[in-house]
From TrEMBL:
<dbReference type="GO" id="GO:0008092">
    <property type="term" value="F:cytoskeletal protein binding"/>
</dbReference>
<protein>
    <recommendedName>
        <fullName>SLA1 homology domain-containing protein</fullName>
    </recommendedName>
</protein>
<dbReference type="Pfam" id="PF03983">
    <property type="entry name" value="SHD1"/>
</dbReference>
<dbReference type="GO" id="GO:0042802">
    <property type="term" value="F:identical protein binding"/>
</dbReference>
<dbReference type="InterPro" id="IPR011047">
    <property type="entry name" value="Quinoprotein_ADH-like_sf"/>
</dbReference>
<dbReference type="GO" id="GO:0030674">
    <property type="term" value="F:protein-macromolecule adaptor activity"/>
</dbReference>
<dbReference type="GO" id="GO:0043130">
    <property type="term" value="F:ubiquitin binding"/>
</dbReference>
<dbReference type="InterPro" id="IPR015943">
    <property type="entry name" value="WD40/YVTN_repeat-like_dom_sf"/>
</dbReference>
<feature type="domain" description="SLA1 homology">
    <location>
        <begin position="60"/>
        <end position="118"/>
    </location>
</feature>
<feature type="region of interest" description="Disordered">
    <location>
        <begin position="133"/>
        <end position="153"/>
    </location>
</feature>
<dbReference type="InterPro" id="IPR007131">
    <property type="entry name" value="SHD1"/>
</dbReference>
Length: 683
């Protein structure tokens, strides 16, 4: 039969109740019967009980309960509706539905689901007809993967699959140091000369993987005349525009896939772009642009103006475009739309570095999706619905949300590391258009650099034009900001320094109850500034001495610096702690080991890649040349167990940052540790 026994039983009960109620109404209205008022009260009470019974029978197994993930940090209130394909369908009190994988729920929740399934089977009342729409597909991955440049460093972490509660935002005053500029606007910046022949209003996009070429949309005239010129290729090494590589058609909001030499943009036809087309170009080996194809992103739209505001490459064949307040994913090779998603307003969503995941704001939530399928993977709950621009960290492990003066940094692997801070002045642009210059610095509004670790603005520079015309980048030998005030401006330094080198020492005393002269503790030293790594030990000793400490003179305390290179053919390390590990781009590693009693207890491996065209001068060794020109890609920090007699404070570390300045020094931040002795009492 098409209906189960429980459904038929419920219908018979309701039909019988209806007939009985009909007779009761006749009984009350009958003029020959007495006590009509009392009978009416009895009938109303019976109807109320029947309504409660109907509600319970509609979903007798539904229970609003608090669901938690395996870490216990994130929770949501919902009703269990159905289980399918390894996922559970949870309906929130407001009617919204989420599909977290069963394996990522806490053990009590998994036990509850198992009992729920048994109860459904035992009573034979499981009805698949309560589903609303189709299942979101197979279970998403929940494992971390090793990072290689260009790949996604992490898939889906368990901590983000359920609704996350809004994080508290600190109240900052005007005098709060976290909101005050730390340096003069132009401190420490190396600005390349502007390029002759290029007018204001350039919107640059990096095209070459090594960071040497950019494609610019060049504006001529004023906005009221809306006269646009060409797309021009610029060579950063010689700092000039290529006169032979020009595209006579104006392109807007375009982007590039450097690995395949592809450029995707919006080409406008008619006054103010009466008809907007998506156009795909290719840059060949000779530096010439050619058209591959073009199509209309929304041929059914009745609007007179194109609304394509953002395009991103997911891979060589699939692109993502923000058309008004709808995100659309296209297979450009087949000229078809794969999926679409309405988002909140025109503010910028984010695509992960490897193109695998996509984040967008939907009202007061930030949702995470699989780029190629549109399956929703997780939700981050915000405390308001104010529009924000989103951008993934270069590692893909963090997500920045920027709006007005508020900046939120979400850690996708550990919500305990989420950060939120405010700037004293709001970003003076409709689009904040955030972009990362390195692992900890975020460019917002095209003019202001913010240190996300310190939670404050470090410099501001007037690049001219609108804020979203300027972009931060890191690629090849160049790292900084690219913008257009009277041409092209490239900063080789993204992080200014007031002094050539500086060092500071600090120790966490929270775990140290009694400390006497000569007692040993581990002390972390932060060394920053444009300096060669060979001076790190010297700066470390100076910082310890300045703090009133001294290096232990015992023979079992050793700080050792070692350098390792990979085999040019196999890209594997030949020796050392990274032996047999394979890394791309001819990597090079500087490893800092701290030994106690002949045993390594702490290790920092700074892994980078050597440029293909690195050079060695006559007055330096090969090691120094590689060290000077290495472009770090990531840092591996390993902490081994310390001997029991060593007091071990709370472990803290930071990511290394390096870039090449005009003088050839490495701008580095290194974190090293050593065994030190406590100062005499009374200091």
């Amino acid at each position: 039969m098409g209906e189960d026994r429980a459904t038929m039983r419920t219908k018979f009960i309701h039909l019988g109740s209806f007939g009985w109620c009909w007779r009761m109404l006749g009984w009350i209205q009958c003029p020959r019967s007495g006590g009509g008022r009392l009978r009416f009260v009895i009938l109303v009470a019976w109807l109320a009980c029947l309504a409660c019974l109907g509600v319970c029978s509609a979903d007798d197994s539904a229970e609003i309960r608090v669901w938690r993930d395996q870490t216990g940090r994130f929770e949501t209130k919902a009703i269990l509706v159905e289980i399918r394909d390894g996922r559970v369908k949870l309906r929130k009190p407001d009617g919204r539905v989420v599909w977290p994988p069963l394996s990522l729920l806490s053990q009590p929740d998994q036990d509850y689901v198992a009992k729920w399934q048994q109860a459904q089977k035992a009573s034979d009342i499981f009805a698949g007809g309560v589903m609303e729409g189709d299942s979101p597909g197979p279970e998403a991955e929940a494992t971390a993967t090793a990072w290689k440049p260009g790949d996604e460093p992490v898939s889906v972490q368990s901590g983000r699959l359920l609704t996350v509660q809004p994080m508290p935002r600190p109240k900052l005053s005007e005098a709060d140091p976290r909101s005050v500029s730390m340096s003069s606007p132009q401190a420490g910046l190396t600005v390349l000369p502007t390029i002759a022949g290029l007018a204001d209003g350039n919107i640059p996009y990096l095209l070459d993987p090594k960071g040497r070429l950019s494609l610019l949309r060049v504006q001529q005239g004023t906005w009221d005349k809306t006269k646009f010129s060409q797309a021009v290729l610029v060579d950063h090494e010689v700092n000039r525009a290529n006169p032979t590589t020009r595209w006579e058609e104006p392109l807007h909001f375009f982007n590039a896939n450097p690995n395949h030499g592809l450029i995707l943009g919006r080409a406008d036809v008619g006054s103010w772009g009466a008809t907007g087309q998506m156009v795909m170009l290719r840059l060949d080996g000779s530096g010439q642009l050619s058209e591959l194809l073009r199509w209309y992103p929304d041929p059914e739209s009745k609007e007179s103006k194109p609304r394509v505001r953002q395009v991103e490459f997911i891979d060589a064949e699939i692109v993502l475009a923000r058309v008004g307040d709808i995100v659309r994913v296209y297979d450009w090779n087949e000229r078809r739309e794969i999926w679409r998603l309405p988002i909140s307003g025109w503010h910028r969503p984010a695509l992960s570095p490897g193109g695998r995941y996509f984040a967008a704001q939907i009202r007061d939530e930030i949702a995470l999706f699989e780029s190629k399928t549109g399956n929703q993977l997780g939700v981050i709950k915000r405390d308001d619905a104010d529009p924000v621009d989103l951008v993934f960290h270069p590692t893909g492990l963090r997500l920045a949300a920027v709006g007005g003066r508020e900046i939120d940094i979400y850690d996708l692997a550990d919500a305990g590391n989420d950060r939120s801070f405010s700037l004293t002045e709001p970003i003076d642009t409709f689009y904040s258009d955030p972009s990362w210059t390195d692992e900890s610095h975020l460019l917002v509004g095209g003019t202001r650099l913010v240190d996300t670790d310190l939670g404050r603005q470090v410099w501001q520079y007037d690049l001219g034009g609108r804020g979203n015309d300027n972009r931060a980048f890191q690629s090849g030998l160049f790292r900084g900001v690219i913008g257009g005030r009277g041409g092209l401006i490239v900063f080789r330094h993204a992080i200014p320094h007031a002094t050539v080198a500086k060092a500071k020492a600090s120790v966490d005393w929270s775990d140290i109850q009694v400390l006497g002269p000569g007692d040993s503790v581990r002390l972390e030293i932060s060394v920053s500034g444009p300096t060669n790594r060979s001076k790190v030990a010297e700066l470390m000793q100076a910082a310890i001495a300045k703090a009133g400490w001294k290096l232990s003179d015992t023979a079992d305390s050793v700080v050792r610096f070692a350098n390792y290179r990979t085999d040019e053919r196999t890209h594997r390390f030949r020796s050392g702690p990274l032996k047999d590990q394979e890394l791309p781009y001819r990597p090079y590693a500087t490893v800092v080991d701290v030994e106690v009693g002949g045993e390594v207890v702490y290790r920092v491996a700074d892994v980078g890649r050597v440029p293909d065209d690195f050079k060695v001068s006559l007055d330096e060794t090969l090691k120094d040349a590689i060290e000077r020109q290495t472009v770090p890609t990531y840092r591996m920090i390993e902490r081994l167990d310390l001997p029991p007699h060593i007091i071990q404070p709370e472990f803290q570390h930071g990511l290394g940052k390096s870039t090449l300045d005009a003088e050839g020094f490495v701008d580095a931040t290194d974190f090293v540790s050593g065994l030190v002795q406590a100062p005499p009492r009374g200091r």
